[in-house]
Amino acid sequence: EVQLVESGGGSVQPGGSLRLSCSASGFSVDDYAIGWFRQAPGKEREGVACIRSSDNSTYHADFAMGRFTMSINNAKNTAYLHMNSLKPDDTAVYYCAADRDMGQMTLAAIMGERTINRPLEVWGQGSLVTVSS
């Protein structure tokens, strides 16, 4: 079964850090583009970052630049989102996704999922991140 499982979410104070993990099973992250998305209460899901491990092509949303870093450990078949200097506006459910088409993944991450002609192939269940004092 093709599956993504997120972990590492939780509550943190403003300025704090968290690392989210996205463990893949049933497929190799070597062959897929992996992305992180988030959905805040009352808002549409938006792209955070994506990466293609075959050539390390990466994209980070403007709000993530300088604070969030996405990485992949191919040996563990796991992707990570390292989040620093967290703000209350970062409160959201964070999802990882996988797709064999980096173009589709990047378009979804930059322009939104409505701009692609099919859903991304694999989604995790989501991990809640709450930033509050």
Overview of this structure, please?
With 133 residues, the chain is mainly beta. It contains 1 helix and 11 strands. It has one helix at 102-111; strands at residues 3-7, 10-12, 18-25, 33-39, 46-52, 57-60, 68-73, 78-83, 92-99, 122-123, 127-131. The strands form 2 sheets. Strands 2, 4, 5, 6, 9, 10 and 11 form a 7-stranded mixed sheet that branches. The chain is globular, with a radius of gyration of 14 Å. The protein starts with a strand and ends with a strand. The relative contact order is 0.29. The mean pLDDT is 94.
Q: Beta-strand percentage?
A: over 45%
Q: pLDDT under 50 segments (min length 5)?
A: none
Count of helix runs: 1
Radius of gyration: 14 Å
Tally of extended strands? 11
The average pLDDT value, as a whole number, equals 94
Subunit arrangement of the protein: single chain
Structural class: mainly beta
Distance between the termini: 40 Å
Taking the sheet with the most strands, its summary is: 7 strands, mixed
The helix/strand series, from N terminus to C terminus, equals EEEEEEEEEHEE
Overall morphology: globular
Percent in helix = under 10%
